[in-house]
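Example 3.2
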Amino acid sequence: MLTEAQLERCVAWLMRHGSAPVRYLTKVHLLGYDRASPAARELWEAAQGDPVGAEIFGKQRPDGSWCDGGPWAPKPSYLPMGGYTPVSPKYVTTVWLLSILGDMGYTVEDPRVMRACEWVMLWRRPNGVLSETRAPFTVADYDENPRNVPCRMSVQMDGLARVGFASNQRMVRPWDLLLRWQREDGGWVQEGHRDATAAPYKVWGRSCPWVSYFAASALHHSGIREYREPLREALGFILWHLDRKRPEEIRRFFWHGHDTVRELVMLGEMGFDPEQPSIRVLTDWLETMHDPGEDCFRYTGKPVSKMSRKLDGGDARVMRYRLFHMIEHDWLTYWAARAERGFLRTM
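Structure, written as tokens:
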């Protein structure tokens, strides 16, 4: 683990060298300034001039949605026959871009963000399911106990939560469903993997780490105190799954559904023991990128364009999104500092 002094030097480096959004986030999440404070507001004004935000909003459609590429992902090579949805195709549609904006500090206070959230709500069914269809409602859409479908829904809820939409009244039923679908092991898996109707057509005896990461992230970003215990249970499942893999398998940014650095942030901020085996493996790996001479973290892996699913956990298309605003020096230092600070507080 970094020492308090090393962490302080990383924070100082961020305030000197970070991009405008990273300096703002450092002020709020690492230095504890209220978002409404004059010091934070001044940095937020600068952050809104960041070219990534400008490009994202420049590609927003009049109805509030997105379906476009950029530095975060290649332009979509296809569109589903029924058109794009809030979450499909992956990495270029509305909730994926809301996640990026939320990580940059944008919230529903920005009318462009709120318009995007309102567009996502057009896909909400009467029973609370966040769907990928806008077909006329059927009897099934009023079923108070719908089929368990957390996969894409958890991604939508995460994107909405990251921009501060979690406490909107229309989210009450979606949260209720997500929590009801949480399994005894703390994670989630869609019904099709329990009755063998979904690929790969076998029954799963455990939850799915991919879905469970997004569900945990949604709970974490919701800021709703009542969800802290379900979040702890979800993180417990994530750790359980990591513990069953060889250390060399998990020493990476993205693997088998795990977004490991963001998971470390959640684990640290929720007070998990930094000596837990998988946490130790991941923090030791992350600290190999710490440059004590410069007081920052520097990515030391291969170029994203050279990545493959077999060797790196995802191909170049997937990793372009997964590592966006993650492996740049300032962003990596910011995420690492948040994780390290959380664990230092538990020691």
